[in-house]
Amino acid sequence: MVDSGSEILGYFTNRIQAAKEQQLTELDLSVSYGTHSNDKLDHIPDEVLELTQLEKLYLSYNKIKEIPESITKLTNLTQLYLRNNEIKEIPESITKLTNLTYFELNSNQIEKPPLEVVDRGIKSIYNYFRQLEAGKDYIYEAKLIIVGEGGAGKTTLANKIQNPDYKLQEDETTTEGIDIITWKFPLADKNREFQVNIWDFGGQEIYHTTHQFFLTKRSLYALVADTRKEDTDFYYWLNVVELLSDNSPLLIIKNEKQERKREINIRALRGQFTNLEKTLATNLQTNRGLPEIVTHIQDYIKTLPHIGQTLPKTWIKVREALENDPRNYISLQEYLDICEVHGFTNRADKLQLSQYLHDLGVCLHFQDKEDAALYKTVILKPT
């Protein structure tokens, strides 16, 4: 069980033995929050999987890394608690536990199925695997969100990523609201392209209050700072991204206009913001440092947790239908009808997908906002 000679080993052994002897229907192998990692289970013991009479199993606050296929032996299980472990993938075999009604997975780094599926509970997980039976596809798409103060060079960076030969305009207008650029680059090992939806935000303070609607998870962030002005409030931007994006990774891009350099206390920032990945310097006028920035963006965005996830083909079909729809927005009912045409029958499945596409930057559907008009509208053209 655990690689330790401490009392906790005896605790686990004694409880499992008692459950076996007394044919208990409930077993608690959770540990206290903050317990030393050496005193935690790193897998579900085989002895536990032999207790086929169990109805409730508590394994929270351990360091369990996977759910074994042999979990199917626990056919009477109705409740399974795995809060705060190290699980990344839920196996399809979990669907064999037909009596399972409560499955707690909070504070794990789940990568498969998508979080939108997991967060809706065990029925949602069952539905996801059921949809996969009709066909599978994979997602190689993500959102790059560029933020910073007005005039820092955000629009220039967005255009230069797509086209390094883009010429700066002397009288280039400041972005109002959001500009969205689609950028694709090849994935040699997959023989397909990776699509990046680049969102360039207006930096004026009047737009700051709208960030809550557009800063999403499943994204890579680039904070552009003008080193001449030295007006970037790093703590403001890092706080906003951390708060609204589920701690998505962030790169600081120093635009060294007229070669003016500026030192940033990265150690202090990184000590407070764990999602700060790297600081990169460039001069967007001359393209100095631009190739390195593009390479780093590609590397980071390809490693976002959702990349390469297995998805039902029905999800991909709906995603393509929405992208090809010429309308700026549609009603929620029209969206649900599109899902129906492409093989969805369950309303909960359809709403899962709209949340997933919202995070990718394909469309916007504000499911968690109190405003009924927002909930009843799916925005196909976010600009």
Characteristics of this structure?
383 residues; alpha/beta; six-stranded mixed beta sheet; four-stranded parallel beta sheet; 14 strands; globular; disordered N terminus
The secondary structure category is alpha/beta
Largest sheet composition: 6 strands, mixed
Residues in β-strands, percent: 15-25%
Shape: globular
* Lateral arrangement of strands in the main beta sheet: 7-8-6-9-10-11
Radius of gyration: 24 Å
**Oligomerization category of the chains in this entry:** single chain
Please mark out the parts with pLDDT under 50 across 5 or more consecutive residues, or reply none: 1-5
Distance between the termini: 54 Å
Element order, helices and strands? HEHEEEHHEEHEEHHEHEHEHEHEHHHE
Give the helix proportion (percent range).
Answer: 25-40%
Overall pLDDT? 85
The number of helical runs is 14
What's the count of strands?
Answer: 14
Description:
With 383 residues, this protein is of the alpha/beta class. It has helices spanning 7-22, 46-49, 115-118, 122-132, 154-162, 205-208, 211-214, 234-244, 266-272, 290-302, 313-324, 332-341, 347-360, 372-375; strands spanning 26-28, 56-58, 79-81, 102-104, 136-138, 141-148, 178-187, 192-201, 219-226, 250-255, 276-282, 310-312, 329-331, 377-379. It has 14 helices and 14 strands. It is globular, with a radius of gyration of 24 Å. The protein starts with 6 loop residues before the first helix and ends with a strand.
